Amino acid sequence: xxxxxxxxxxxxxxxxxxxxxxxxxxxxxxxxxxxxxxxxxxxxxxxxxxxxxxxxxxxxxxxxxxxxxxxxxxxxxxxxxxxxxxxxxxxxxxxxxxxxxxxxxxxxxxxxxxxxxxxxxxxxxxxxxxxxxxxxxxxxxxxxxxxxxxxxxxxxxxxxxxxxxxxxxxxxxxxxxxxxxxxxxxxxxxxxxxxxxxxxxxxxxxxxxxxxxxxxxxxxxxxxx
Length: 225
What we know:
alpha/beta; Rossmann fold; five-stranded parallel β-sheet; two-stranded antiparallel ribbon; 7 strands; 51% helix; elongated
């Protein structure tokens, strides 16, 4: 049946079983969506299991538990995430976007049609944010960029982008990949050793990378080096 081939496969994640069941009930009868009841469940495509295209996550707020689950989902391959949240603090907004969240819905506004629209937007790689969140995100971006400009003019170690890597971060990681240590990198790039360490620390903190090898692997996978 051609309709099945066009369905968006979805997994639903929530700590509250009743909330999870509610989202599943919204989606399971939609002809354009196929809900996988278990993350291990998959649909065969040309004889091979198909990864879920979209993960829908329900949280009250982005606390440590929700952040850990979000990282697990993203690292598991379900990179297009729809987040349904009861509240979202300003410091969490950029964090969830960096984790790979494509769409955000307020829990009290998550009607069946809005949820379906968000799922399809995420599956296409598009974004979907409530208007008030767009405004808050723009304010945060402006604030962060002003802070980065000030830091750069004051001789700070690196003005890093919101997402991805700054050119000097790529330069440092390329030399790490070649086997150079901190002192050799500082000599090669005419930076102080402290600056090299600060660049690596800021990069690994921002992108949730555990060590230099992990950072190099990330840069290789994303095509930076």
